[in-house]
Amino acid sequence: MSASTPNQLIFNKDLGVTTTLKTITDPILENNPIHFRFSHFTEAAQNTTIQILDRYLVTLDLLFLRESLIAALRESVTNAVKANAKRLYFQKKNSDIMDSSSYKSHMQTFKTDFLKEKEAFEQELAGSKFLIIVSFVHNKDLFRIRVMNNIQITSEEVNRIKEKIQKASQYQDLGEAFMDAGDDTEGAGLGLIMTMMMLKNDGLGVNSFKYESVQDKTSVIIDVPTSTGINNPQIQKADSILSEIDHLPTFPKTIQDIQASIEKPNSSISDIATMIKKDVSLSASVLKLSNSAAFRRGDRVESLDRAIQLIGLKELQTILYSLGTKQILEDKFPAFATIWEKSNECAFYCKKLAQKMGLPKDISSNLISAALLHDIGEIILLSIEGDKMTELQKYSNSKEISSTLSMEESIFGITHTKLGAMIAEKWFFPEIFSKAMEYHHKPLLVAEQYKDLIYPIYISDMMIKINFLEAKATEIPYAVLTRCKFNSIAEFQSFRTKSLEEFRNL
User: Fold this and answer.
1) In this structure, what is the dihedral angle of CA atoms 234, 221, 169, 101, given to the nearest 10 degrees?
2) Torsion-angle region of residue 154: left (phi > 0), alpha (psi -120 to 50) or beta?
3) Among 55-64, 174-183, 356-365, 461-470, whose mean pLDDT is lowest?
4) Which helix (H) or strand (E) holds 222?
């Protein structure tokens, strides 16, 4: 499949990148490649390339590969930028990068210097001859991503790439890769292996990732057959995890009784408060929730009746799903407190988004409850497989990968999103909650009727990650931003910073 560079690459000021595109909505046509050229992966370049990648994946019905392909694209571009920066580094040292002894000598300091002075390197690259071209092209059988830079690769670099490809072909899962990260002198060791393992886990195989080097052009190529189907997880790996769900108790009957009483037309706040007061733990949870960021409206609430009045009976009915979950999981799983705290922050941002989107009160209520519940699967994984989950999250945060589902599935045989959905089914939760648990990392795959629920939760999770520099706004799908009433990434970023300040001041 040809993806040669055409002559019409020009700087598009609206998109902020040199490209063959005239607009972001240019048609996606067979055998008609789209190219981008830059010296380093600016925010504008990332935003545009990922938007176009999304359009290809929608066109080819390959959205389930989005997480892996974005990770592969970013890893490939990052390595290409480093390779170009390396050439600049050797030029400044008046050293020949093709000389083996010089290469080994200067590579001892390159990685440290590059990380310390990354912005300076990027500024120098912008004025240099070293460039990167990203290309997308497809036909009826294949979708190809190519990341090319205009350099001649060294023998040392060839050997490292071959070594990593060979290792990735031998590993059975990502757990093995974590345990054998190996030499990371150039900063591309584990990252390349993880990328290939994610692609492999999604059914693409090691041969889908390859590199070519011809004279002064070096390319990474990712080939995706258009017939690729969703890969089934290796459930046998997950036996010990699934057994934890089997041993969970049924959902508390006291809470089910309270929910049934709220349904009655003549129920009152006083009646419901009397029922809740019989359960000291539940009473404390309702009071605490009424004083949380998502519900607080002024002075601290001290009485249960006032707490219920503040929350509202219909809202309380849905909130009781999260409080019942808290009763069951809080003492059993050590990771509960951390995830519950994060879920409360997520619920606060969802409340702000619901206001921005103008959602009706009943949908807003369901959204806040779903936000509190959406990560209960992560509680299980963090508690049972804490060491591996910590390593996985450290890696994804360092690479600013917002979702780790493909890596979870490869390591554990199941994802925290699927675990959460299974718990929701076990406890007969409304379908909206199981959908929130299953799709909050893959919003573009959810059915239309759930978008006003899933999209704000996804956005809120991304806000939290971006606040901790663990993800980038450019990764948020444009369709999600517009559904949540954002006209641009800049508008989203302004909303994020204001919401964070408001949350911290509560």
Assistant:
1) -140
2) beta
3) 174-183
4) strand 217-225
- Which residue, among 439, 207, 456, has the nearest Cα to 356 in the 3D structure? 456
CA angle, 481 then 483 then 489, to 5°: 15
Rounded Cα–Cα distance for residues 425 and 32 (Å): 45
> Is 436 in contact with 373 (CB distance < 8 Å)?
yes
DSSP state string for 416-427: HHHHHHHHHHHT
- Choose between 213 and 464: higher pLDDT: 464
Alpha helices in 250-290 (DSSP H): 253-263, 269-277, 280-290
**Does 187 score more than 60 pLDDT?**
no
- Beta-carbon neighbour count of residue 429 at 10 Å? 24
Question: Whole-number mean pLDDT of the chain?
Answer: 88
Q: Does position 183 have pLDDT exceeding 50, yes or no?
A: no
Instruction: Check if the beta carbon of residue 143 is closer than 8 Å to that of residue 58.
Output: no
Name the pairing type of β-strands 34-38 and 132-138.
antiparallel
Q: What 3-state class would DSSP assign to 18?
A: strand
Integer-rounded Cα Rg, in Å, for the chain is: 25
pLDDT at 4 over 60: no
d(CA 183, CA 316): 54
